[in-house]
Amino acid sequence: MTRVISLVAHSTKEYVCVMQLHSPVERERLERVLGEFQGLIYQRPPLRSSVRRSLRKKRVNSIRLVEYNGRYALLHVDCEAGTYMRKLCWDVGLVLGVGAHMRELRRVRTGPFTEDKNLVTLQMLSEALYRWRSEGNEDLLRKYIMPGEVMTCTMPKIALRDTAVDSIAHGATLAVPGIAKIQEGIKPGDTVALMTLKGELVAIGKALMSTEEILEREKGEAVKPERVIIKPGTYPRTWKKKA
Amino acid sequence: MEGTDVTRRGEKFLREIDSFCGQERRWITRIDEPTDPQYGFLPSERPIEVYIRNGVINLDKPPGPTSHEVVAWVKRMLKVERAGHGGTLEPAGPIA
């Protein structure tokens, strides 16, 4: 499941940040400059970062000026993963000519995870663990921790027959006969999540056929697994090992 | 038929995953067969240690420590071998 989270790490994010301007500017000019930072921008990561400091193209989907009082601007930004808000604020200040820096930052969305989706603090987690370890009560733990499968919520899904699960767990390509259920709208090249009929995540892969093709044909290669998640042996092997 | 109950609940869980982010794709049944309750688990019914190891937390990170530090703490608290995070959060506020 830790490999699935890297997909979340690369998903779009939303931030709310406070930008401090070193001198006031007219609201209209600020809005105009913020508009220039929407779309594709160039960014070099700041000194204090764990990534390679090369010039990169990043996509800013939107910047909304929520509030502005001449000194501080409250911004709501929707952008590609790996876009630095600190650098954005700094560069906006440069373009405005007065200089600016980021004062405060809060990420309010990471892919599908928004603040209203079961947000948990370390204290809550600690409490839930205590409740389990000392009292034997799992209720809070099961509430605060969600099944990793929710990370696939944006991906179209295919449910496998029990008999097909273990071969996929060993990296085999999924053939049409192994498919029990399929969601509409899958096209070749789509990233799809392969699930068991119980809802367990088996693997994430690339579709080789569309939903229509899969339903029409009796055989053929349907999905190529790229990341196997389920532990091999969870479901029984119903295929023969090559000699 | 054996396994129809867990199959039904599996189907429900699959819909719940999608509705987590407001998705509602239609499912088409190619082969109507149940899943064997003997193997695997409904994700919400995994034994607690397995549940934790395959879980995800939407964590409200405290402002001081780095994302990496928080992941290390969570690993220690949950006593798991591996944990990942959904993206480093850059340090906010004035740098001392």
Structure description:
The complex is a heterodimer of chains A (243) and B (96). Chain A folds into three domains: 9-114, 2-Layer Sandwich (Pseudouridine synthase); 116-146, no CATH class; 151-228, Roll (Archaeosine Trna-guanine Transglycosylase, Chain: A, domain 4), CATH 2.30.130.10. Chain A has helices at 2-9, 27-36, 85-96, 122-135, 139-144, 162-169, 211-216; strands spanning 13-21, 39-43, 56-68, 72-79, 100-110, 113-114, 119-120, 146-147, 157-160, 174-175, 179-183, 191-195, 201-207, 221-228. In chain A, strand 5 and strand 6 form a beta hairpin. Chain A starts with a helix and ends in a 15-residue tail after the last strand. Chain A is an alpha+beta fold. Chain B has 96 residues and is mainly alpha-helical. Chain B has two domains: 1-45, no CATH class; 46-88, no CATH class. Chain B is built from three helices and three strands, in the order αβαββα. The termini of chain B are far apart. The mean pLDDT of chain B is 91. At the A-B interface, helix 1, strand 5, strand 7, helix 4 and helix 5 of A face helix 1, strand 1, helix 2, strand 2 and strand 3 of B.
Topology (SSEs and partners):
The complex is a heterodimer of chains A (243) and B (96).
Chain A: H1 2-9, E1 13-21, H2 27-36, E2 39-43, E3 56-68, E4 72-79, H3 85-96, E5 100-110, E6 113-114, E7 119-120, H4 122-135, H5 139-144, E8 146-147, E9 157-160, H6 162-169, E10 174-175, E11 179-183, E12 191-195, E13 201-207, H7 211-216, E14 221-228
Parallel strand pairs in A: 9-12
Antiparallel strand pairs in A: 1-4, 1-5, 2-3, 3-4, 5-6, 9-11, 10-14, 12-13, 13-14
Chain B: H1 4-20, E1 27-29, H2 48-53, E2 55-56, E3 58-59, H3 67-78
